[in-house]
Design brief:
The chain is mainly α. It contains 20 helices and no strands. The structure holds phenylalanine.
């Protein structure tokens, strides 16, 4: 079977748009629509935005290019990619960490995506009534483990179905359907939101510059958000890059994906805050903003059921195209490294990831008292390890690898192969070799200190 796979030709994206939409599908997810607006609102509005944009341009974009190049040259999953470029060295461990992180992220990402599916279903069937207490309802929803388990399972089955179809017929085809739909829904919801009375208050809240908010904590939030939102640091972009042909372009495609991700994140703020403020609600944070506050908005808005349905459908689509990139990364590892057939790999991994999602679900019912370091529930614990530790470590490893093991000259030449007008120059090497490792290392350490400091 191994030999059979080795001689079988690797699938490739069928067009440039195919790659861009698939990679943008990976990048645009819960991180953009659910997380970005409240993180921005809480961290100083426009000031946070400026810092975040700087992180995207000087750290995220160069790393995105780096991962695409590692994938395109090696034509392999993350473990195989490092092995191919640095044979006989332990660098493959960097890929291994990535694959493990993908597994970990998907196990809880799918649980949250399940909440979103449940709310989409509910909007369609019954809508949101003004008489409801949505905070209490959300509490009841997440403490009902069997219901959560069912939606988490449904979401995993959707991912498995798409991934089992392969690159062209699965990921690419579905991204080409879902991403334009996501964009349309978003435009519709933004128009609705910014034409409500009092919409300006929301925009003012989202973007008011608060200089005093610049702090180490805020810088940390900005960099963590930029890795998560661009899907870098865990090999998803290496994997998607490995389905590019060797002559396909890199810097321009990367710019498209990073640009789309950034625009959609900012637009989410314009979609959410004007509506929240127009109805005199508190912006709240995180899960609360999406699942407790927004249903109130839909309850009060004319045609709220339709807009509510559209919003949760949008959120579910964004989550689905990201989740398939996570599942593809772990699947590619089994297929490329272990010679497992795609179909079997998908079933085995989908099942394991489903099981790994059970503890985060129980964290809201049977295990409500459980806390890691006295502060994180189970889902937040998974998220903390992934976001504060593994993603930055993975990104750091990939930068050090390229800067010092692969050698920056070879890497830059590889990146520019097939490139059009947009090319990388010496600046890219400086960022990859010095700036990014230094900044990311400081951030990982500061993040650890910050977390353990609070444990008394
Ligand atoms: N980028 C996705 C989001 O913003 C999450 C993700 C992270 C997807 C890592 C793949 C890999 O929601």
């Amino acid at each position: 079977m191994k030999r059979f796979n080795a001689v079988r030709k690797r699938e490739h994206w069928s067009s440039r748009t195919g790659f861009i939409l698939a990679a943008a599908g990976s990048a645009v997810g819960l991180g953009n629509i659910w997380r970005f607006p409240f993180v921005t609102g809480e961290n100083g509005g426009a000031i946070f935005l400026v810092v975040y944009l700087a992180m995207i341009v000087f750290i995220g974009y160069p790393l995105f290019i780096n991962e695409m190049a590692i994938g395109r040259l090696s034509q392999k999953d993350p473990v195989g990619a490092f092995r191919a470029l640095a044979p006989g060295t332990p660098w493959w461990l960097a890929g291994g960490l990535g694959v493990f992180t993908g597994f970990l992220i998907l196990s809880y990402y799918s649980v949250v995506a399940g909440w979103s599916l449940a709310y989409t279903w509910r909007a369609m069937l019954v809508g949101f009534s003004e008489a409801s207490d949505f905070s209490a309802e959300f509490g009841a929803h997440i403490s009902s483990a069997p219901v959560l388990l069912m939606w988490h399972g449904i979401f995993m089955v959707l991912c498995m179905g798409i991934i089992s179809l392969g690159i062209k017929r699965g990921i690419e085809r579905w991204s080409e359907i879902l991403m334009p739909l996501l964009f349309l829904l978003m435009i519709l919801l933004i128009i609705r939101s910014i034409t409500l009375d009092g919409a300006w208050d929301g925009i003012r809240y989202f973007l008011r510059p608060e200089i005093g908010r610049i702090s180490p904590r805020m810088l940390l939030n900005a960099v963590a958000q930029s890795f998560f939102t661009l899907s870098i640091g865990m090999g998803a972009i290496i994997t998607y890059g490995s389905y590019l042909k060797r002559e396909d372009e890199i810097p321009g495609n990367a710019a498209w994906v990073v640009g789309m991700d950034t625009v959609i994140a900012i637009l989410s703020g314009f979609m959410i805050f004007p509506a929240v403020f127009s109805f005199g609600l508190e912006p709240g944070s995180g899960a609360g903003l999406t699942f407790m506050t927004l249903p109130n908005v839909f309850a009060m808005m004319p045609f709220g059921r339709f807009f509510g349905f559209s919003f949760f459908l949008l959120l579910s689509i964004a989550a689905l195209t990201s989740a398939i990139s996570l599942l593809e990364t772990v699947t590619a590892y089994l297929v490329d490294e272990k010679g497992v057939r795609r179909g079997w790999a998908v079933v085995a991994l989908g099942t394991l990831i489903f099981l790994a999602g059970i503890p985060p679900i129980l964290g809201y019912s049977a295990w409500t008292g459980w806390r890691f370091l006295g502060q994180f529930d189970v889902l937040d614990t998974y998220d903390w390890f992934a976001n504060s530790l593994f993603l930055p470590l993975g990104a750091l490893a990939a930068a050090v690898f390229t800067g010092y093991a692969w050698h920056i000259r070879n890497a830059a030449a590889e990146v520019n192969k097939g490139a059009g007008r947009l090319r990388v120059g010496a600046w890219w090497g400086v960022l990859i070799r010095y700036v990014i490792p230094a900044v990311v290392a400081v951030i990982i350490i500061a993040g650890l200190i910050d977390t353990f400091w609070k444990v008394k």
